Protein backbone atom coordinates (compact mmCIF):
# COMPACT_ATOMS: atom_id res chain seq x y z
CA UNK A 1 0.00 0.00 0.00
CA UNK A 2 1.86 3.09 -1.19
CA UNK A 3 1.88 6.02 1.22
CA UNK A 4 3.44 9.34 0.55
CA UNK A 5 3.14 13.05 -0.05
CA UNK A 6 2.66 15.16 -3.14
CA UNK A 7 3.21 18.90 -3.36
CA UNK A 8 0.71 20.74 -5.54
CA UNK A 9 1.56 24.07 -7.16
CA UNK A 10 0.26 26.39 -9.84
CA UNK A 11 1.61 24.91 -13.11
CA UNK A 12 2.10 28.39 -14.58
CA UNK A 13 3.82 30.44 -11.87
CA UNK A 14 4.73 27.57 -9.44
CA UNK A 15 2.95 29.17 -6.48
CA UNK A 16 2.61 26.48 -3.77
CA UNK A 17 -1.03 25.48 -3.35
CA UNK A 18 -1.17 22.47 -1.03
CA UNK A 19 0.39 19.25 0.16
CA UNK A 20 -1.51 16.02 -0.37
CA UNK A 21 -0.81 13.16 2.06
CA UNK A 22 -2.08 9.96 0.47
CA UNK A 23 -2.34 6.22 0.63
CA UNK A 24 -3.74 3.94 -2.06
CA UNK A 25 -4.01 0.27 -2.88
CA UNK A 26 -5.59 -2.20 -5.28
CA UNK A 27 -8.35 -4.27 -3.75
CA UNK A 28 -10.78 -7.04 -4.67
CA UNK A 29 -13.07 -4.60 -6.50
CA UNK A 30 -10.47 -2.35 -8.11
CA UNK A 31 -8.42 0.48 -6.56
CA UNK A 32 -8.89 3.05 -3.80
CA UNK A 33 -7.12 6.32 -3.07
CA UNK A 34 -7.55 8.38 0.11
CA UNK A 35 -5.81 11.66 0.91
CA UNK A 36 -5.84 14.72 3.14
CA UNK A 37 -4.79 18.14 1.87
CA UNK A 38 -3.09 20.90 3.83
CA UNK A 39 -2.30 24.49 2.86
CA UNK A 40 1.33 25.71 2.67
CA UNK A 41 0.74 27.05 6.22
CA UNK A 42 -0.21 23.56 7.39
CA UNK A 43 -3.98 24.03 7.78
CA UNK A 44 -6.40 21.31 6.66
CA UNK A 45 -7.89 22.29 3.30
CA UNK A 46 -9.67 19.26 1.90
CA UNK A 47 -9.76 15.54 1.22
CA UNK A 48 -10.11 12.99 -1.57
CA UNK A 49 -11.68 9.53 -1.42
CA UNK A 50 -11.86 7.77 -4.78
CA UNK A 51 -12.72 4.13 -5.45
CA UNK A 52 -12.53 2.50 -8.89
CA UNK A 53 -13.93 -0.80 -10.09
CA UNK A 54 -11.77 -3.35 -11.92
CA UNK A 55 -12.43 -1.55 -15.22
CA UNK A 56 -11.24 1.79 -13.87
CA UNK A 57 -14.70 3.37 -13.54
CA UNK A 58 -15.38 5.58 -10.50
CA UNK A 59 -17.76 3.65 -8.27
CA UNK A 60 -17.44 6.22 -5.45
CA UNK A 61 -15.96 9.70 -5.24
CA UNK A 62 -16.06 12.07 -2.28
CA UNK A 63 -14.23 15.39 -2.46
CA UNK A 64 -14.02 18.17 0.13
CA UNK A 65 -12.49 21.60 -0.54
CA UNK A 66 -13.15 25.04 0.90
CA UNK A 67 -16.21 23.78 2.74
CA UNK A 68 -17.72 22.41 -0.48
CA UNK A 69 -18.44 18.72 -0.95
CA UNK A 70 -18.97 16.60 -4.05
CA UNK A 71 -20.12 13.00 -4.08
CA UNK A 72 -20.20 11.20 -7.39
CA UNK A 73 -20.06 7.92 -9.27
CA UNK A 74 -20.29 6.43 -12.75
CA UNK A 75 -24.04 6.27 -13.35
CA UNK A 76 -25.59 7.04 -16.77
CA UNK A 77 -22.24 8.63 -17.61
CA UNK A 78 -21.12 10.34 -14.42
CA UNK A 79 -23.49 11.70 -11.80
CA UNK A 80 -22.70 13.88 -8.80
CA UNK A 81 -24.19 15.95 -5.99
CA UNK A 82 -22.44 19.17 -4.98
CA UNK A 83 -23.20 20.68 -1.58
CA UNK A 84 -22.35 24.24 -0.49
CA UNK A 85 -20.47 25.08 2.74
CA UNK A 86 -23.68 25.79 4.66
CA UNK A 87 -25.14 22.42 3.74
CA UNK A 88 -28.39 24.16 2.82
CA UNK A 89 -28.15 23.78 -0.94
CA UNK A 90 -27.29 20.71 -2.99
CA UNK A 91 -27.22 20.58 -6.77
CA UNK A 92 -27.21 17.43 -8.85
CA UNK A 93 -25.39 17.00 -12.12
CA UNK A 94 -25.09 14.37 -14.83
CA UNK A 95 -22.94 14.34 -17.95
CA UNK A 96 -22.32 11.70 -20.61
CA UNK A 97 -18.66 11.43 -19.63
CA UNK A 98 -16.29 8.58 -18.79
CA UNK A 99 -14.98 9.71 -15.39
CA UNK A 100 -13.97 12.63 -13.16
CA UNK A 101 -10.78 14.66 -13.01
CA UNK A 102 -9.36 17.39 -10.79
CA UNK A 103 -6.18 18.64 -9.17
CA UNK A 104 -5.48 15.46 -7.20
CA UNK A 105 -2.94 13.01 -8.69
CA UNK A 106 -5.55 10.32 -8.01
CA UNK A 107 -7.44 11.38 -11.12
CA UNK A 108 -4.41 10.85 -13.38
CA UNK A 109 -4.02 7.29 -12.09
CA UNK A 110 -7.76 6.75 -12.51
CA UNK A 111 -7.69 7.89 -16.14
CA UNK A 112 -4.82 5.53 -16.98
CA UNK A 113 -6.71 2.65 -15.33
CA UNK A 114 -9.76 3.47 -17.41
CA UNK A 115 -7.94 3.76 -20.74
CA UNK A 116 -5.43 0.86 -20.36
CA UNK A 117 -3.20 2.28 -23.08
CA UNK A 118 -0.27 0.42 -24.65
CA UNK A 119 2.83 2.05 -26.18
CA UNK A 120 1.82 1.07 -29.71
CA UNK A 121 -1.79 2.24 -29.44
CA UNK A 122 -3.13 5.41 -31.03
CA UNK A 123 -4.11 8.35 -28.86
CA UNK A 124 -7.47 7.85 -27.16
CA UNK A 125 -10.08 10.53 -26.60
CA UNK A 126 -11.79 10.74 -23.22
CA UNK A 127 -14.49 13.05 -21.82
CA UNK A 128 -14.10 13.96 -18.15
CA UNK A 129 -15.91 16.11 -15.61
CA UNK A 130 -13.30 18.35 -13.99
CA UNK A 131 -14.05 19.41 -10.41
CA UNK A 132 -11.99 22.56 -10.07
CA UNK A 133 -10.68 24.18 -6.92
CA UNK A 134 -11.40 26.11 -4.82
CA UNK A 135 -15.16 25.39 -4.91
CA UNK A 136 -15.27 22.08 -6.81
CA UNK A 137 -17.14 23.64 -9.74
CA UNK A 138 -17.89 21.00 -12.41
CA UNK A 139 -16.70 21.56 -15.97
CA UNK A 140 -16.74 19.05 -18.84
CA UNK A 141 -13.41 18.65 -20.64
CA UNK A 142 -12.28 16.55 -23.60
CA UNK A 143 -8.75 15.18 -23.59
CA UNK A 144 -6.60 12.92 -25.73
CA UNK A 145 -4.22 10.50 -24.00
CA UNK A 146 -1.33 8.59 -25.58
CA UNK A 147 1.28 6.35 -23.96
CA UNK A 148 4.42 7.60 -25.69
CA UNK A 149 7.17 5.85 -23.74
CA UNK A 150 7.67 2.98 -21.28
CA UNK A 151 10.99 2.51 -19.50
CA UNK A 152 12.08 0.04 -16.84
CA UNK A 153 14.55 1.20 -14.19
CA UNK A 154 16.46 -0.99 -11.74
CA UNK A 155 15.84 -0.14 -8.07
CA UNK A 156 16.62 -1.68 -4.68
CA UNK A 157 13.07 -3.08 -4.64
CA UNK A 158 13.28 -4.59 -8.11
CA UNK A 159 12.51 -3.21 -11.56
CA UNK A 160 10.31 -0.12 -11.76
CA UNK A 161 8.33 0.57 -14.94
CA UNK A 162 7.71 4.24 -15.71
CA UNK A 163 5.07 5.22 -18.26
CA UNK A 164 5.15 8.61 -19.97
CA UNK A 165 1.79 9.85 -21.23
CA UNK A 166 1.12 12.77 -23.53
CA UNK A 167 -2.12 14.50 -22.61
CA UNK A 168 -3.75 16.97 -24.99
CA UNK A 169 -6.56 19.35 -24.10
CA UNK A 170 -8.79 19.13 -27.16
CA UNK A 171 -10.32 22.59 -26.70
CA UNK A 172 -6.97 24.44 -26.67
CA UNK A 173 -4.49 21.97 -28.15
CA UNK A 174 -2.26 22.41 -25.09
CA UNK A 175 -0.12 19.35 -24.39
CA UNK A 176 1.71 18.15 -21.30
CA UNK A 177 3.51 15.05 -20.08
CA UNK A 178 2.52 12.82 -17.17
CA UNK A 179 4.95 10.26 -15.68
CA UNK A 180 3.41 7.38 -13.73
CA UNK A 181 4.71 4.18 -12.17
CA UNK A 182 2.09 1.71 -10.94
CA UNK A 183 -0.37 3.78 -8.90
CA UNK A 184 1.96 6.69 -8.15
CA UNK A 185 2.41 9.88 -10.19
CA UNK A 186 6.12 10.73 -10.43
CA UNK A 187 5.65 14.08 -12.16
CA UNK A 188 2.91 16.06 -13.91
CA UNK A 189 2.08 19.75 -14.34
CA UNK A 190 1.47 21.19 -10.88
CA UNK A 191 2.36 17.91 -9.15
CA UNK A 192 5.62 16.77 -7.51
CA UNK A 193 6.10 13.52 -5.61
CA UNK A 194 7.93 14.61 -2.45
CA UNK A 195 7.91 11.45 -0.35
CA UNK A 196 7.06 7.77 -0.87
CA UNK A 197 7.19 5.38 2.07
CA UNK A 198 6.56 2.15 0.16
CA UNK A 199 6.83 1.00 -3.47
CA UNK A 200 3.99 1.63 -5.93
CA UNK A 201 1.42 -1.10 -6.45
CA UNK A 202 1.68 -3.15 -9.61
CA UNK A 203 -1.49 -3.54 -11.64
CA UNK A 204 -2.08 -6.81 -13.45
User: Could you give a short account of the major beta sheet?
Assistant: 15 strands, mixed
Q: Strand sequence of the main sheet, in spatial order?
A: 8-7-6-5-4-3-2-1-15-14-13-12-11-10-9
Structural class: mainly beta
Computed over alpha carbons, the radius of gyration is 16 Å
Which oligomeric state applies? single chain
Number of domains: 1
Organism: Streptomyces shaanxiensis
Protein name: Glycolipid-binding domain-containing protein
SSE order and pairing:
Layout: E1 3-9, E2 16-27, E3 30-38, E4 44-53, E5 58-65, E6 68-74, E7 78-83, E8 90-95, E9 99-102, H1 105-115, E10 124-132, E11 137-155, E12 158-169, E13 175-181, E14 184-188, E15 191-196
Parallel strand pairs: 9-10
Antiparallel strand pairs: 1-2, 1-15, 2-3, 3-4, 4-5, 5-6, 6-7, 7-8, 10-11, 11-12, 12-13, 13-14, 14-15
What would you note in describing this structure?
- By secondary structure, this protein is mainly β.
- It has one domain.
- It contains 1 helix and 15 strands.
- A 15-stranded mixed sheet has the order 8-7-6-5-4-3-2-1-15-14-13-12-11-10-9, covered by helices on one side.
- Strand 7 and strand 8 form a beta hairpin.
- The chain is globular and about 55 Å long.
